[in-house]
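Below is a filled-in request sheet from our internal design queue. Each sheet records the structural input a requester submitted and the sequence that came back. We keep these sheets so that new team members can see what a complete request looks like end to end.

REQUESTER: design group, bay 2
PRIORITY: normal
MODE: inverse folding
CHAIN LENGTH: 257
BACKBONE (tokenized):
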């Protein structure tokens, strides 16, 4: 099993007030699961963090029972199970990103649905596994209202996320590497990846070096420090001053740098 280090930190709500984190991490014998509950586009829906917690528990149970099951099939089953148990319907449900890394003696698998990237480092260099469909729609000005989000969520030409439709699991971005070629893998929610993708504080190799030198909390600190220096979001416009943060560092070959 790789050496795993985890850093987590709650952000604030859209009102600027503290609230529990909506990010959830589960470590299994042969996998790491990272989910980030999305802020619900409608105030009458349950919070994304509530849904992400239910889903990660169901997904973990699926993979404990069937450790070698296809990751998409396991997620689809988990989505269906939570939807049935909670009476959730497509288009009328909270949602969550899903990122999974699984390993065995031969390979390391990555599975990314929505905007919580996975980054692998090894003999192949740096390989970023990301799902940029949501970001592309935002950058294109196509997601300006809650109605826009609901219309384009889990729809062709839109973006895909774990919600109440199991078919979304088929739309994940996947990657597989030979285990012997992998040194380390990062899983991050967007409260961390924003430091790379938007703030340009560092690149992913810098994130790994900082996490190895000072622990993964140092990466979270760097992002928070930048946000505190831009409290009004003038340099980096954003919905919340601080988003939830979760970073997982899985070292498959700790001697490498």
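RETURNED SEQUENCE:
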């Amino acid at each position: 099993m790789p050496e795993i280090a985890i850093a987590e930190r709650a952000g604030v709500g859209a009102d600027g007030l503290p609230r529990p984190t909506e990010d959830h991490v589960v470590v299994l014998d042969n996998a790491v699961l990272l989910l980030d509950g999305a802020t619900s586009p409608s105030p009458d829906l349950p919070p994304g963090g509530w849904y992400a917690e239910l889903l990660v528990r169901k997904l973990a149970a699926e993979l404990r029972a069937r450790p070698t099951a296809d990751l998409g099939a396991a997620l689809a089953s988990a989505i269906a199970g939570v939807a049935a148990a909670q009476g959730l319907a497509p288009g009328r449900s909270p949602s969550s990103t899903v990122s999974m890394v699984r390993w065995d003696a031969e390979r390391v698998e990555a599975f990314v649905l929505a905007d919580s990237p996975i980054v692998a480092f090894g003999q192949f260099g740096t390989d970023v596994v990301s799902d940029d469909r949501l970001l592309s729609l935002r950058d294109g000005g196509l997601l300006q209202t809650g109605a826009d989000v609901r219309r384009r969520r889990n729809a062709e030409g839109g973006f895909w996320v774990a919600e109440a439709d199991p078919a979304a699991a088929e739309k994940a971005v996947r990657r597989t590497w030979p285990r012997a070629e992998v040194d380390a893998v990062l899983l991050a929610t967007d409260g961390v990846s924003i430091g790379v993708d938007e703030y340009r504080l560092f690149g992913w190799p810098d994130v790994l070096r900082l996490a190895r030198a000072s622990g993964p909390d140092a990466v979270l600190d760097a992002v928070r420090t930048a946000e505190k220096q831009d409290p009004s979001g003038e340099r980096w416009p954003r919905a919340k001053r601080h988003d939830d943060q979760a970073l997982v560092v899985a070292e498959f070959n700790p001697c490498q740098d």
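SHEET NOTES:
- The first strand starts at residue 3 and ends at 9.
- The chain has seven helices and ten strands.
FILED BY: M.R.
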